[in-house]
Specification:
With 250 residues, this protein is α+β, with helices and mostly antiparallel strands. Among the domains are: 75 residues, RNA 2'-phosphotransferase, Tpt1/KptA family, N-terminal domain (Arc Repressor Mutant, subunit A, Orthogonal Bundle), CATH 1.10.10.970; 98 residues, ADP-ribosylation fold (Alpha-Beta Barrel), CATH 3.20.170.30. The protein contains ten helices and ten strands. Strands 4-8-9-6 form a four-stranded antiparallel sheet. Strands 1-3-2 form a three-stranded antiparallel sheet. It has a three-stranded antiparallel sheet with strand order 5-7-10.
Length: 250
Amino acid sequence: MRIKESQQLARFIQYVLGRRPDEFGLVPDVDGFIPVADLLKVAQEEGWHRVRRHDLATLSQQVNQPVLEIRDYLVRAVNRSRLDRYRETTDGPKLLYTSIRRRAYETVLQHGLKPQGHISQVILCAAENLAQKIGRRRDSAPIIVTVHVHSSRQCGVVFRQFGDGLYLADHLPASCCRLPRPPQTIQRHEQKQVDAPATAKTPGSFTLDIEPLVNSPTPWKTSPRERRSKDWKKARQKERRWKQDRRHPP
């Protein structure tokens, strides 16, 4: 990476990690760390398609003024003086949004939303498009979950705000979450499970299905000659006559 590109990348990362991570749907932990993979995905979304982990490592090893610090799979800005903090709030929008993977649909429908990732909080967005953007980092077609703030507070949920448009919660019960209709992939999977025949299984054995053998013709009782078609016989006879004509021309 060239020096000018490295300087531009350093300014971009300082803004993302040290000033406004909430603008990109990122929430650092209490020590200011976020996963390196999340930072790389944000960089690609913002046009830095060729940035890799070794580029971040180069910025962390600058002698004069390192921009970031990498610790295992986590990264944080060195200068975090302008980084916002969590704050408990009783205001905010009536509806909040978050995204889940398609395979988590049934779990959320039954048990609600639970914390995932590097922080022990459920991340919620005031803007639905930001929730969609965050979800596409984990699933190509994420499912948007709508959370009713008033009913959640009645269930004892405490919301904390981070930045301008992100909110955090320890847990959200299923009664406070509104999900859309299940995707077609989930519907097809459920239909296959319903249509599958229930067969009794005996431990250590298997059930032999003899119905196809009973209803089908018995090919083992026919001789090889009987199984040959007439067209095949005619082709062989024609080939033999052709060979005989070549051996004994008129």
